Structure formats: structure tokens, C-alpha cells
Amino acid sequence: MLKTSPLLNGRLASAVATLRHGDMIVVADAGLPAPPGVETLDLAVTQGVPSLADVLPALRDAAVLHEVLVATDMGRVNPTRRALVGEIFTSDEIREVPHEEIEALLPRAALIVQTGECTPYANVVLVGGVSFFDMAMAES
Prior knowledge:
Strand order of the largest sheet: 2-5-1-6-3-4
Order of helices and strands: HEEHEHHEHEEH
CATH superfamily: RbsD-like domain
Strand content: 15-25%
CATH class: Alpha Beta
Mean pLDDT: 91
């Protein structure tokens, strides 16, 4: 479900606009392999561009999200990126899961957004939610 969005990338804006409760957009580091059949939007320009710090706030502001999944090991292996995710999203929104669970979810992703992030475990799964407030306002 799309909020008023500053997203300039048409494919990304479309993915957010069609995101429904439980649908997933994976924001991935440059090395995450996409499973066959899952659409990948490769935004990577150079090493680190764009970074998670560039992409995650734009998606947070554009999408209604139910939860945000990160690998349990992210804090140990990549504490800088884990802290970044904690700054962008609230602790109530973030759920840590084993890295294997994130890999198992990849085939169900609506879209994998490949960034230029070149640090380990810099993968974040955004799970779509529903804004009942927005729906109630539309009925008024």
C-alpha cells in the first residue's frame, strides 16, 4: 500500500503501490543471490551507492509496513548496519530471525532491491501492512 511517495524510480514506486499485507520487498546487499523467477531491481551504481541508509528511509516513508526482518547475526557481524536499521525503524517493527529464514523467504519476495551495499548481512525484509486509518479516511 502506497503512502504519498517521493519515490522517483517507477518500478520501485509500483512495487510499493501494490504491496499488500504480508507481501515482501527485500532490500539486499550487492551480493545477495536472487532466486530464479523473483524480480530484481538492481539500483547498484558503485560500491556503497546506493546504501541501505539511502534506500531504507525512502521505502519506510513510502510504504505501510507490518514488520521489518533482519538476520539475528546482523548485530554481531555487521553492528553498524544493524544500528542503522534500529535508527530507521522502531524496535517494535523489527524482528530478528535466523539468516536461513531470510534466505527461505526470498522466493516469496515481490521484489528484491539490490543496493550497492558491500557489507555482510546487509539485507532487510520489509513486510507489507495495512493502514486501517487510511482506509477509514477514504470511506469518509
